[in-house]
Amino acid sequence: MSAYSLTKTRFREGLWEGLLVAETGATAPPEIGVTLNDRPVRGVTVIKAAEEGRWAVEIPVPVEAVGDGVQTFLITDTAAEVTLDSFTMIAGEPLGEDIRAEMALLRAELDMLKRAFRRHCLETT
User: In the CATH scheme, what architecture does the domain 4-90 have?
Assistant: First the structure.
């Protein structure tokens, strides 16, 4: 178990940002590692915040991660070999298929409700 916790603060303009907090009285941040498809993500920064035991973490999303499919980033404390957090990006055709399937299910349920309502109206008049 890691002596740190990481909480996402925002994800905007290709930059994932989070707040790293020491659970104990640690004064130095852990070595943060970020991987995408088992390859390291470059450009990760850990910046000391105003309060003791807190750091701002910034992870740039690499260009090769933008495209069709599901991309999962793992953020780890490399010394403790513990996953602190993760985030996922979904884009393109896989997302479209999911939305189309969900819409078809909603349409089928709506048609069933319309038939039941019409039947109810006919029976009560």
Answer: Sandwich (2.60)
